[in-house]
């Protein structure tokens, strides 16, 4: 089958008798107040008719921009990250940008290889949920000043950089306080053993909430590899066996909560009669679970909006060459049956 010949701007110019410069202005949306509406419509109608597609390689060579943003999530299949990705894609598209998604699986080597790959493809910006022990690599990426770098879901306190995150401390504190208000006397925290800022801030928020309520914190910090595994579930059940007085649990992630709920079912623990439960990050299954599970929900649309807004501002240089974009957004506690109150926010 013979390949269809690509239509060029020169071809359009010859066919319509309109200068290449004028057509270029119209294609690149720079014709307003420069070219008549009649000419704009004539060119746009013809472009649509012949199916003209801009030469992206030429545009990249000319402008140094590919109009592409990469979102490197911990796990793009996780409902939280995929929901944020979907929201970002819509906003980016409306602003003339395309998005690429990938997962780091919390692996430093994999993350470094992906960054190198996308740099070779000359992407304009990275939005990254960095894996553990990745601060030096992020610092080096920022220092190169080749791409805009925005961190999501976690940040570094010793490096000046752009980020959009949840107010993790307040969220965990609010959730733990709700468990206490539900009548819990011994609230436990189940989180990740990691250097992620979100995890340390959630743990500190929990500790602050219970400091005047129970004699000491009760916590289980699992390695990332055990979050969804039988080994992680065994460690969780061991925690309950060692602390038989636990009557409330705050899970730091939805993955931990799902595995924990499986463990509670295996132990025949009744929610909320024996244990009240709250988890970070809402999912449909938490509402459908019997009893329904209370959550500290992250504001997905707002997070996505701020991520793209901040990235575009930095791409356009609106914040200055050395400026950053930093946002901390509040979560929302949604109280369901697992808190023993039967009150819905």
TrEMBL record:
Top-level taxon of origin: Bacteria
Keywords (A to Z) from UniProt: DNA-binding, Transcription, Transcription regulation
InterPro entries (alphabetical): HTH_LacI, LacI/GalR-like_sensor, Lambda_DNA-bd_dom_sf, Peripla_BP_I
UniProt domain HTH lacI-type: residue ranges: 7-63
Gene Ontology molecular-function annotations: DNA binding
Record's protein name: LacI family DNA-binding transcriptional regulator
């Amino acid at each position: 089958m013979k390949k269809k010949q690509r239509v060029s701007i020169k071809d359009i110019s010859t066919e319509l008798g309109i200068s290449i410069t004028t057509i270029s202005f119209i294609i690149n949306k720079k014709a307003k107040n420069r070219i008549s509406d009649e000419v704009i419509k004539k060119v746009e109608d013809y472009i649509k008719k012949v199916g003209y597609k801009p030469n992206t390689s030429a545009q990249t060579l000319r402008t140094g921009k590919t109009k592409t943003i990469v979102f490197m999530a911990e796990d793009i299949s996780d409902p939280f990250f995929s929901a944020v990705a979907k929201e970002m894609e819509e906003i980016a598209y409306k602003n003339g940008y395309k998005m690429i998604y990938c997962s780091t699986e919390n692996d430093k080597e994999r993350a470094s290889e992906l960054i190198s790959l996308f740099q070779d493809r000359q992407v304009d910006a990275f939005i990254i949920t960095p894996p553990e022990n990745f601060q030096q690599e992020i610092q080096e990426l920022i220092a190169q000043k080749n791409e805009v770098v925005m961190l999501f879901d976690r940040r570094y306190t010793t490096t000046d950089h752009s980020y959009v995150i949840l107010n993790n401390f307040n969220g965990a504190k609010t959730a733990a306080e709700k468990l206490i208000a539900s009548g819990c006397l011994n609230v436990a925290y189940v989180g990740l053993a990691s250097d992620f800022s979100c995890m340390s801030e959630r743990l500190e928020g929990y500790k602050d909430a219970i400091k005047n309520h129970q004699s000491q914190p009760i916590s289980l910090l699992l390695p990332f590899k055990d979050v969804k595994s039988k080994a992680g579930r065994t460690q969780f059940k061991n925690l309950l066996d060692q602390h038989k007085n636990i009557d409330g649990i705050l899970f730091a992630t939805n993955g931990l909560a799902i595995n924990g709920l499986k463990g509670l079912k295996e132990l025949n623990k009744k929610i909320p009669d024996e244990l009240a439960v709250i988890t970070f990050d809402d999912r449909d299954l938490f509402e459908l679970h019997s009893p329904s599970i209370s959550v500290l929900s992250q504001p997905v649309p707002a997070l996505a909006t701020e991520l793209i807004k901040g990235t575009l501002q930095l791409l356009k240089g609106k914040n200055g060459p050395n400026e950053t974009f930093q946002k901390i957004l509040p979560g929302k506690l949604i109280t369901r049956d697992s808190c023993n109150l039967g009150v819905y926010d």
